[in-house]
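Ticket #4471: structure export looks truncated?
Reporter: QA, pipeline team
Priority: medium

Steps to reproduce: submit the single chain below to the structure queue and open the exported record.
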Amino acid sequence: MRKLILVLILGCSNVVGAQIVGKYDQFEIIEDDMVWTNTYSQPGNRDSVRAAVVQMIKSKFFTFNVIRNETGYNGEIKHYSINCKKYGRSYINTPKMYWEGEWRGKFKVEVTDNYYKVTVYALYYESTRPSTGYYKTQETVKGRFITAVTKKNKLVFRKRELANISLMSISLKDEFSLVGSKKRVD
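Actual output as written to the record:
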């Protein structure tokens, strides 16, 4: 009887842990990649939501190669940066890749009546770090976001990165929101 109870307790704790491990905030680990998804409410039929989404995408300096498809739009993210000050982060407690890094990746926007869903995936960063040596030059550091915030098996998030994952999530959420989006001046 004790063994049965122990097995049940361990089994339940593994199930609960598995649900939390692969998903944090609006990021989820899917097939060796971190995928961010957010659904936005936007009153109106599909055509009016699509028109608002088009204006939002055009207003963003970091959206490139946008292609319309049956359900919405696909595109690339290039030169994306995070405004850490806007979210109350200091230079001391935030890694340099978030402060000075340049991000790239891909996005998909699905449009339906009364809402649109944004999915961001394949995020890569490029940042600089001081090199060791006499001349004190800086070297470029590049990598996948999933590699930077997960442990080696890419199934478990590093605890010290959870606040930074939330920072990226809120930044993406604000950037793809129709509320407060302004037209880009070319």
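Status: closed, not a bug. The export was complete when the record was re-opened. Leaving a note from the reviewer for reference: The chain is about 30% helix and 35% strand.
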